[in-house]
Amino acid sequence: MVDNMGKNSEREGLKYDFTSSGEDGVIKEQDRLLPIANVGRIMKQILPPNAKISKEAKETMQESVSEFISFVTGEASDKCHKEKRKTVNGDDICWALATLGFDDYVEPLKRYLSKYRESEGERANQTKTNYSSDEKNETYNHHGEQPRKATISCAGSTPLKFNMSDKSNISMSRRFSNF
């Protein structure tokens, strides 16, 4: 698809950092859009196994979701800027969704965020436990120094599932995984 975003000065009210932009100040399409393969994969998860998706449908969805992400992130970023913070967090995204009128997504996202944080906490504790047990078993070389070694530990985690259901039609349940 053609990038008709234009130069930053031409876009009213949008503030972007163009550090990864081209020399003329236009964001490269590959930096602005989600990878089309990922978009297609998510679309396929929702459709029946034998359903086909046209290239045009994937490109349209790619543009839409990329714009949606920019819209919500921009709102969250403005909030952080006003609060003199540099990092946008999950709570800021939830706030932005509510502010922009996407209230139906806020509670499921908060539940997902809570499960994600819980999972990350467990993973951090597992890593800390592995690290402290390694310290107790350290040996020293003939110079009285600990030998150098690289340790990579990955605590296994199950993918979180994000369930979204339309309250008006209970049969409309969506499952998103691997966020």
TrEMBL record:
Biased composition (Basic and acidic residues): 133-148
Residue ranges constituting the Transcription factor CBF/NF-Y/archaeal histone domain according to the UniProt record: 33-97
GO cellular component, one term: CCAAT-binding factor complex
GO molecular function, one term: DNA-binding transcription activator activity, RNA polymerase II-specific
Pfam families (UniProt xref): CBFD_NFYB_HMF
Keywords assigned: Activator, DNA-binding, Transcription, Transcription regulation
InterPro entries in the cross-refs: CBFA_NFYB_domain, Histone-fold, Transc_fact_NFYB/HAP3
Residue numbers spanned by region Disordered: 118-154
CDD domains reported for this sequence: HFD_NFYB
Family, per entry: Belongs to the NFYB/HAP3 subunit family.
Protein name per Swiss-Prot or TrEMBL: Nuclear transcription factor Y subunit B
Organism field: Quillaja saponaria
